[in-house]
Amino acid sequence: MTRRRVRGGIGILAIVCLATASTGQSSARQAFADPLPSWHDGAAKQAIVAFVGKVTTVGGPSFVPIPERIATFDNDGTLWSEQPLYFQFEFALARVKALAPSHPGWRTQQPFKAALDGDMKTLAAGGEKGLVELILATHTGMSTDDFTASVIEWLRTARHPTLNRPFTDLVFQPMLELMAYLRTNGFKVYIVSGGTVEFMRAWTESVYRVPPEQVVGTTFETAFQIDAAGQPLLMRQPKIEFIDDGPGKPVAINKFIGRRPIAAFGNSDGDLQMLQWTTAGPGARFGLIVHHTDSVREWAYDRHSQIGHLDKALDEAPQRGWTVVDMKRDWNVIYPFQK
Amino acid sequence: MTRRRVRGGIGILAIVCLATASTGQSSARQAFADPLPSWHDGAAKQAIVAFVGKVTTVGGPSFVPIPERIATFDNDGTLWSEQPLYFQFEFALARVKALAPSHPGWRTQQPFKAALDGDMKTLAAGGEKGLVELILATHTGMSTDDFTASVIEWLRTARHPTLNRPFTDLVFQPMLELMAYLRTNGFKVYIVSGGTVEFMRAWTESVYRVPPEQVVGTTFETAFQIDAAGQPLLMRQPKIEFIDDGPGKPVAINKFIGRRPIAAFGNSDGDLQMLQWTTAGPGARFGLIVHHTDSVREWAYDRHSQIGHLDKALDEAPQRGWTVVDMKRDWNVIYPFQK
Questions:
Q1: From CA B189, how far away is CA B264, in angstroms rounded?
Q2: Touching check for A5 and chain B: CB below 8 Å?
Q3: Given A137, A206, B90, B222, which residue has the most CB atoms within 10 angstroms?
Q4: How many angstroms separate the CA atoms of B197 and B243, rounded?
């Protein structure tokens, strides 16, 4: 190559950099910029960067080929907030209200009466049975297409009860950066959540850039039918098929993905077995727990919380080498709108 | 840009082309070569090429964005042969023989005695119940890792009873070309099979280039356990969880993929509902049935066959616009080793 052509090349590169820098999309800039700007430069961030560096170093002892770079993320409390109620439960309550006119009996019948009255005490007293009843009444009995439409409509209009924001505003900016950083490094990013799969798939692609086929969750039985007009449809049946929580998470990962992840991210004891399964595999592995410690910017809760209960997993973290994120100290921004 | 630099660019391109052509990996060559050389230039091939052209034409009325280009393939009889017995059943019979020394009772106990004696008549007389019993005895009761190892070991040593070839030699060359052609055009290719998912995942990546997370199939219940040494493992339970056949196929597609495919490929009535569901969607859709018509090079069977029974789907094909492949006329090669 002649000296002249090399110089020309540098000139073109400079022009490209100037042009793209002005639109904020320079890959050259991104390569040198901090990929995790919302993370303080503490032990958690350093552990993430060290792990990604190790598994992507070609020829290194911990190198992992791209197809095996599977990362699984819990959703509630790990990618978005989950207080004062799981957001999917807010959806169920809103749907009870929307559907009430065609169910006059609900005005007097529990747990529907409590849901319509916003009577959280009675709802909580009804325990899991009542909650499941509300979920079944609002999540099943319709086609898959109609259900997805109801989630999208709710997201468009609903607001968080205390923060008065659309629920999809309440995702964690540091975790968005982390997912993008992993993808840039050849990882396939999955969500593995106790939430029901079709509730999440309605919005995970636009909010998290996670496509439907990379979302694993709790499922309902579904039936294939041909309607009167000869059109096939899938009807959601009022029966839970599989609960993707606790020991169900590694089972679902095996069923849906068929590979053991090399990195897993959670925030509660519902993620304990996913973290155990992921980090017990051979080679470099990474487990991370988001510890909700920020009562001012988000919520602070762990061992004594009904939602996002974090106890055993927090105890096991040191001995298993899991990284524990202290939200208050490790994240300089919580939500994207605070940037 | 100076004329000199343009010439230099062409010179470099020419060198690159020469270099890669000699290794047989020139993308320029592939772009102009026939992507489906094992297909005769008949109606089936023309329908495939026309469909792919339509959905990939940017700005055209039938354009489909890449993330929505989902194609689902049945496995037995669609991607590899399935006669005289489903190959997975050959695996089960071989495993009964391998496991017999530690199960002395099997010598006198049906259906195991018939399996050990190669007594197909008695096995057939035992119906589905007997077959399920053999499948459970050979596919469950071990960890997921141990099961995968048993499939890989079987594939290494087993031979087809009449063709005396490794089973993975008996895949259809025209379908390998079709899957590659779709992938080149931005499709994500899935297998959706009545076979059990972990049996297939042990070899689909090396044989079909379909990774584990793109294989959907029949599943067994699986339990997460921690062994005496503190290691987590997944134990396969002797209970079928979900049968991915007939109406189960669109249900599983919805559960695992969460998007309706735009193209589906099958060969039997077990694929009927997958074809209906796929082709009833809006926009350009493609359904294809492999009709086994070649008694010399493969097998000829359809309406009266117990394995690969093809009756209703064949009747519905014309009215629903599905392409029917006549193996004898449409394929100039069946297996890769005949090329």
A1: 10
A2: yes
A3: B222
A4: 10
Distance CA(A302)–CA(B36), nearest Å, equals 58
Its pTM stands at 0.90
Residue B198: closest CA among chain A residues belongs to which residue?
A258
CB contact under 8 A, A212 and B280: no
**Pick from A217, A171, A172, A170: nearest CA to A190:** A217
* C-alpha to C-alpha distance for A135 and B113, rounded to whole angstroms: 49
**Cα–Cα distance, A149 to A218 (Å, whole number):** 19
Q: Does A270 touch chain B (CB under 8 A)?
A: no
- Give one DSSP letter per residue of B295-313, joined into a string: TTTS-B--TT-STT--SHH
Q: What is the identity of the amino acid at B139?
A: H
Q: How far is A183 from chain B, CA to nearest CA, in Å? A: 16
Residue A46 touches partner B, C-beta closer than 8 Å? no
Q: Are A223 and A94 in contact (CB under 8 A)?
A: no
Residue contact A247–B198, C-beta within 8 A? no
- Residues in A touching B234 (Cβ below 8 Å): 250-251, 254, 277
- Is A197 within 8 Å of B258 when comparing Cβ atoms? yes
How much is the ipTM here? Answer: 0.89
Facing A212 at nearest CB: one of B144, B222, B257: B257
**Residue contact B222–A258, C-beta within 8 A:** no
Q: Can you list the alpha helix ranges (DSSP code H) found in A100-172?
A: 112-117, 120-125, 127-139, 144-157
**Most B CBs within 10 Å: which of A1, A10, A66, A213, as the mutation test of the B interface?**
A213
Nearest CA in chain A to B245: A224
C-alpha Rg value of chain A to the nearest Å = 23
The Cα–Cα gap between A286 and A71 comes to 9
pLDDT tens digits along B163-211: 999 999 999 999 999 999 999 999 999 999 999 999 999 999 999 999 9
Going A97 to A101 to A107 to A112, the CA torsion angle's sign is negative
Given an 8 Å threshold on Cβ–Cβ distance, is A222 in contact with B254? yes
pLDDT per residue as tens digits for the range A157-213? 999 999 999 999 999 999 999 999 999 999 999 999 999 999 999 999 999 999 999
pLDDT level of residue A31 (50, 70, 90 thresholds) = low
Closest CA to B328 of B33, B34, B44, B35: B44
Q: What proportion of chain B, given as a percentage, has pLDDT over 90?
A: 87
**Per-residue pLDDT reduced to its tens digit, A64-103:** 999 999 999 999 999 999 999 999 999 999 999 999 999 9
Interchain CB distance below 8 Å, A258 and B198? yes
